[in-house]
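Z., the sequence and structure:
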Amino acid sequence: MKTPSLIAAMLTLTFPAGIHAQSTETTTSQKTSTSEIGIFGQTEFSQSNTNLSMMGIQFKKWMNEHVGFRVLGGYASYDALQAPFFIGGAAGEAEERYVSHQISLGILGVGVEAQRQFYKRLYLFAGLELKGGYGSGTADTIIKTAYKHHGHYESNWDLNNGSGNATMTYLDFMPSIGAKIQFSKLTFGVETSGVMMNYTSIATGNVSSSMTGFEMGGYMIHRGFISYRL
C-alpha cells in the first residue's frame, strides 16, 4: 500500500462515516478499557537473503474510541547472507566469499494506531510504527571454490573459516494494516505490512558497512498478538 493510500485509510478509520454496526455494550466497553498490554510475535518473508524475527511485549493507550498509540519492546534475531564477492584463486579456479551474520538485538518502538469496528467484535485497523535496536553476534566467512574437473566445473564449500564478533544498529519505519477480535478483556489480532523503510549498520572488527533500504513487493511482515484490556 502506498503512503497516500495508507493516510487516507487512517483518516477513514479515525473519522468513520456511514452506517456503524456497533452495539451500546461494545461502545461502553471500548470507552472504559483505554489501555491494553500483551505479547506479540513477528516473522518476515523476503526475496533477499535476510530475515528479522521478533517477539516481545506491547502496550497500547487509546486516546478515544478510534485512535491510540503503542509502545513495544522485545528481542529480535537477525540472520543474513551477504552477496558473494569474487577474490580470484589458483590457476583454473575461481573463489567466492560469503559472510553470514547471526545477531541478537534488543528492540524498542513507538507507533500510532487507528481502528474502526467492522462487525460486532471484529475491528480493522491501520498503524504507523518506528522502531530501532542494537545487538551483537557473529560473522562467519564461507568460501566457495569452483574448479574444472574432467571438462566440467565442480564446487567445494568451506564452512569452517572462523567467526568474528559483530555488532549491529537497526532502525525501521513500517506502515501496516490488521484485524482483531475484541472481547471484554482479551484481544486477538494479526497485522501485516508489505512496505518497509530501514537502516542497517553492521561492524565486524575494524570493518563496518551500512545500508538504507526501501522494501516493497516481494517482502511481507506478519505479526500476531494477544492483549489484555486493562
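The chain has a mean pLDDT of 82. The longest helix spans residues 3-14.

Let me know what you think.
H.
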